[in-house]
Design a protein that fits this description.
With 131 residues, the chain is an alpha+beta fold. The protein has a single domain (6-122), classed as Winged helix-like DNA-binding domain superfamily/Winged helix DNA-binding domain (Arc Repressor Mutant, subunit A). It contains four helices and five strands, in the order αααβββββα. The chain has helices spanning 6-18, 24-31, 40-52, 119-122; strands at residues 56-59, 67-70, 77-81, 87-90, 113-116.
Length: 131
């Protein structure tokens, strides 16, 4: 049963508007604009419920905390900023991956993670833009 709580609406809004995977602490900071007294435990419960409902999917990144994004998106990859830690969606897919598969093996799926500096962190001007 989909409970339509203020907290759930705030988290849905944040994820829908962000267009990028977010960690529970990132969700908490952004959702507090709508629900100032929301706690991290509420975010985790809501994320679990939205994942169980199929509205969210986890984004598993090697060596990083799990992030979540809206379900139903086409095949895509992710960019992780090594300075601010935010993760972004990357459209497209590198070609030639099948040539990297060892002889006699079969590739079923793949994940590509790109690491570097996002536009805000790479900007030579001081101060964040669009965060």
């Amino acid at each position: 049963m989909d409970r339509d709580t203020l907290q759930r609406r705030a988290i849905r809004r944040v994820l829908s508007q962000s267009g990028r995977p977010m960690s529970p602490p990132e969700l908490l900071a952004a959702a507090r604009e709508d629900v100032p007294r929301m706690g991290l435990a509420t975010v985790y419960r809501t994320v679990r419920a939205l994942t169980d409902e199929g509205w969210l999917v986890p984004v598993e990144m090697p060596g990083e905390p799990q992030r979540y994004e809206c379900a139903g998106k086409g095949h895509h990859h992710h960019f992780n900023c090594s300075r601010c830690g935010r993760t972004f969606e990357v459209e497209g897919c590198p070609s030639g991956l099948e040539t990297m598969v060892p002889e006699g093996f079969r590739m079923d799926t793949h994940e590509v993670f790109i690491y570097g500096l996002c536009g805000d962190c790479n900007d030579p001007l001081p101060g964040p833009r669009g965060r």
